[in-house]
Amino acid sequence: MENTLEELFDEYSWTKENKTITQEKHLVPSLGNLTYWNFNAAPPPKPIHYHTDIMEFHCLVKGQRTTQIKSGDKYNSYTCTGNELLFTHPFEHHGNIQNNQHPCEFYGFQLILKNPDALLGLNKHYSNILYHQLAHLPYRQYKMGTSHIQYLRQAFNFFSDLKETSIAVGLQFLSTFLYSLPYLTPTEEAKVLTMDAGISKSISYLRENLSENIRLNDLACVSGYSLSRFKSKFRSETGITPAEYIALQKIEYAKHKLTETNISITDLAYSLGFSSSNYFSTVFKKYCTITPRKYRSHQI
Fold it and tell me: How far apart are CA 209 and CA 222, in angstroms?
């Protein structure tokens, strides 16, 4: 896995799917790349790499993203869904090498910790406070609130202008985001503490009836909400729409069946409520980058 390990940095980009502002563009000394990604199809894998003196933050707005991070002599996988963040420490080996990544929207940025006295233009006192807080974060994944997503959006939008005065405003939003991290709820605790009972019931119902032609009205009924309220509540609780969640659950189930059984792709498609094997293959490829047939052959 580490034969070609290197310190990897993305170059400046301004496309529909990938907007990356490099340090050479924004000129903030302690800030590396600032990125916005929005993939409607599965993004390409990212090779295992590392960053010297850099703490890297991945902040999911919607969708799902899995990252492998080395711990000791093995790699652990961390999966973020909407409204969750994950960070890596300096020199940690990490990447998202799996071929079965999912469509996602997220912000990412790199904080260079080489000089704890001068982070993001702060004076020495407040820079050291921020450095100390980040160095002692007890968890790796946290649940973000709506306001934190807005901090990131505003920061990126102001940076995108590439004017000194706009970047100065963007730094205030980014600093606010970072200072608030110690007060966020760790992801696993957040799932236990804040999952709405109605949404939890609908998710349980979905998982127990994956082979059925599940309608959103059915899930809304189980949750006890009206359809419009259910859609809104589901998105706020999970970070993705009910339709996206249904598709993700069915694809994960299909991957297991393709690996562990000899069921035909056509029978699998119909068993999951797809109208045809062709449509099933289209949806599968959107989330996994390859067809069900190729996925099965790669697992053998």
Answer: 12
Token readout for 146 is 């709506």
Q: What's the predicted TM-score (pTM) here?
A: 0.67
- Dig out the tokens for 135 from the structure: 């160095």
Inter-residue contact 253 to 280 (CB < 8 Å) = no
Residues 6+ apart with CB under 8 A from 270: 277
236-271: b or e for each residue (b if 16 or more CB lie within 10 Å)?
A: ebbbbbbebbbbbbbbebbbebbeeeeeebeebbeb
126-181 per-position pLDDT tens digit: 999 999 999 889 899 999 988 999 999 999 999 999 999 999 999 999 999 999 99
Distance CA 155, CA 157 (A): 6
Side chain identity, residue 276:
S
In Å, the largest CA–CA distance within the chain is 64
C-alpha count within 13 angstroms, C-beta hemisphere, residue 126 = 9
> Quick one: which H or E segment has residue 75?
strand 74-81
